[in-house]
Amino acid sequence: MDDSEDDLGLNALEGFADRFVRDQRRPACQLYLISPLNVGGDFPDRLARALDAGPVAAFQFRVKDIDQHEAARLAEPLQAICAEREVAFIVNDSVSLAKRLGADGVHLGQDDGDPRDARAVLGPAVQIGVTCHASRHLAMEAGEAGADYVAFGSFHPTTTKAVKHLAEPAILAWWATMFELPSVAIGGITPANAAPLIAAGADFLAVSAGVWAHSDGEARAVAAFERLMSLKG
């Protein structure tokens, strides 16, 4: 089943997200920060300010087009900042880098390998997330393969990466109703557009530019997300 077939299925659920009331037995939605591609310079200080501004569940280290030695060099101070604040440190794409760093988790795209293989390398305690675009089928497959969370999106246009799959809040509502496995909403999320995703049942909001490019700075952006997530769904 491809995403186009999934879209047909979601059309049958039109309005479902509007009817969904967040199950109060589920933990409140949490913030999951994703790094910008440039994590050098003063970025460690910026990360510390963001994490000190409000609750953050996880930080994903996402860099491109550099070798693993350089990636590890850049990651180590950021990992230490996260550890000091008990924020999970997740590596994007690379199981080998996650293993090298002793990271708390790895996030896999659809072309980054099978969660079963990642589990064999990283062990039972490491968190494994899988990008599932706008596909219920891919999400169910990820869950069956042992993923710890599934990520849906993009929900909005984003400058972080090319958008090939646009998702609707209905998929979050459907997932939260059917499965206990946490979901992550990703893609162009800002304090201005996040409320419907929280209400639809997202367990985490994955945010990059919505924090790092916020006009009032990363600390105020995190505080704004905290205010949204503290509201009852």
Could you please describe the fold and organization of this structure?
This protein has helices spanning 3-11, 16-19, 43-52, 68-84, 95-101, 115-122, 136-144, 169-178, 195-200, 209-212, 218-230, and strands at 30-34, 58-61, 88-92, 105-108, 127-131, 149-152, 183-186, 204-207. With 233 residues, the protein is α/β, with parallel strands linked by helices. It has an eight-stranded parallel β-barrel, surrounded by six helices. Strand 4 (105-108), helix 6 and strand 5 form a beta-alpha-beta unit. The longest helix has 17 residues, at 68-84. The protein is globular, with a radius of gyration of 17 Å. It starts with a helix and ends with a helix.
Kindly provide the radius of gyration, computed on alpha-carbon positions and rounded to a whole number of angstroms.
Answer: 17 Å
Class inferred from helices and paired strands:
alpha/beta
The chain-level mean pLDDT equals: 91
**Helix fraction by DSSP (H/I, runs of at least 4):** 40-55%
Amino-to-carboxy terminus distance: 32 Å
Number of separate strands = 8
Portion in beta strands: 15-25%
DSSP summary: helix tally? 11
Global outline: globular
